[in-house]
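[#protein-structures] MJ: dropping CN hydrolase domain-containing protein here for a structure pass
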Amino acid sequence: MTSRLALIQLAVTASKEANLVNARAKVIEAAEKGAGIVVLPECFNSPYGTSFFPKYAEPLENGPSSIALSNMARDAKVYLIGGSFPEIGPNSKFFNTCTIWGPNGDRLGVHRKVHLFDIDIPGKQTFKESSVLSAGSEITTFDSPIGKIGVGICYDIRFPEMAMIAARKGCIAMIYPGAFNMTTGPLHWELLQRARAIDNQMYVAACSPARDETAGYVAWGHSSVVDPMGQVVAKLGEKEDIVYADLDVAFVETSRANIPVSVQRRFDVYPDVSK
Ligand SMILES: O=C(O)CCC(=O)C(=O)O
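AK: finished. structure tokens for CN hydrolase domain-containing protein:
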């Protein structure tokens, strides 16, 4: 069983309306090229930055981005992992939120970024999402025609537990809308995808916005797909583009059977890794 995955490395602008129009055109193009599962990047409809989150935030129910994403998924007849957008949620709290849509336009899942991006590499990259955002607290999976798929957002990829739990719940892929930067991108973007893929013998894909050198936060780009043996099977440069890869469930099964680490774990030795 296979399905073609498309990652849309969208050129995000300051105009939410223009971003939604561009995203729609690209989702339809990906579907015409045979994609059954389509992914948009983190903050696909707004610039990425704490000052932008409250300005661009919208509710989950009947906000312009949710309506546009539902229509895109329905009109293109695809499973759509709708990147993320700043959400104004319960008690007026802000979240970095990914919505997942089915080919009939129904919402299949919601992932609120669990691990907020708070880092400080002096002189290079400082960011504090927690100054504005609240964190989600759920591991998110949804059912696709080729099996369960897990969803995280960007910094979530640094936390192996999330992908491991998703894999142990039966996921065959983890998909991360993300926007690494010019410091951590070259160091860790691909390595983390390959690490999570090998840890769990699953496909891992990460979808970035295109690089905009004029933006306050410059995204690394390089949206890519890694297979269950840890090989990079598709990778973009930094410009706006779409990359495709066929997800093959049989390859997940063979990888897990050939190197059976998932059934060799010694939970008797490490029942709780927090200790
Ligand atoms: O982990 C990183 O280096 C980057 C994470 C990030 O940009 C994000 O979570 O939005």
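MJ: nice. The pocket of 2-oxoglutaric acid is lined by residues 42, 117, 154-155, 158, 179-181, 184, 188 (CB under 6 Å).
AK: one more thing. The domain at 2-261 is CATH 3.60.110.10 (Nitrilase/N-carbamoyl-D-aminoacid amidohydrolase).
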